[in-house]
């Protein structure tokens, strides 16, 4: 069983990425599991190239410092030639209607949208199929894309010959959905304009404390786990529970101030080793380059045979 997941460098990694994804990836035990920084996916909207390069490097360092085995890591663009080739084969296996039906394209697309926004689910299928991933842990918003990868794998195999593993979407084990601290009606996001509600993994302890102390609560002045009626307080309880391995329903705090102070302590401790690991890694560019190159070599080795077979069966190369 090979699992595959990615994080897009659309901004700095935040507490939600850490609690909902990265720390689970660090417990991954499949020898062929692969986690990658999906920098090619960040190009589907307007972006700044030097910033993209720097965020990609920073995210790779965050993944390593989070404890993910470096042998399971890579940067997507290091395989851009292999992925570009397979994407073309898969685009020629996919109908326009299938791509245009994707709800994310329907939500963000339009005549001015980049063509890459329409075709990026096919690139995602190439990510999955090139590595022979059998399990793809995704949230609801990405289920449709894994379905597309399944359809394309089955269609290619039936039309030209068996080469692709048909992947399966798996729902990650009740991953915490961390909410924005100032707008708890929406999830914490990398690309949110107002950073006040987002705790970034690399924020310094003082800033983390300040952001959490300003988190939106309510006027009930009662610390209870009621996500429907007290979403801000529930979010803080969930964050505390996730950091301390407890259940949000079992927690008691006398005041909102006491809750916020405990949450800040827990988050600072949770993120401290990552921040320190990233500082060390970014101060040693040669080591990060070595990790990146080794990851790219391994991923390419796994991909080449499958890509060559697909091109041959498709009647090209
Ligand atoms: N708030 C969150 N709580 C829990 N998990 C989260 N993830 C993202 N936000 C939260 C998980 O992090 C992994 C990587 O995310 P992604 O790069 O695929 O992008 P995303 O889900 O769209 O994350 P962001 O941070 O909100 O980015 P933007 O702002 O660009 O949309 C995924 O496993 C995701 O579930």
UniProtKB/TrEMBL annotation:
Protein's UniProt name: Tryptophan--tRNA ligase
CDD domains associated with the record: TrpRS_core (cd00806)
Organism name: Actinokineospora soli
EC number(s) recorded for this UniProt protein: 6.1.1.2
Main EC class the enzyme belongs to: ligase
UniProt xrefs under NCBIfam families: trpS (TIGR00233)
Keyword entries, A-Z: Aminoacyl-tRNA synthetase, ATP-binding, Ligase, Nucleotide-binding, Protein biosynthesis
TM stretches of this protein: none
Example GO molecular function: tryptophan-tRNA ligase activity
Statement: the UniProt record of this protein carries the keyword Cell cycle: no
A Pfam family that the UniProt record links to this protein: tRNA-synt_1b
Family indicated by similarity: Belongs to the class-I aminoacyl-tRNA synthetase family.
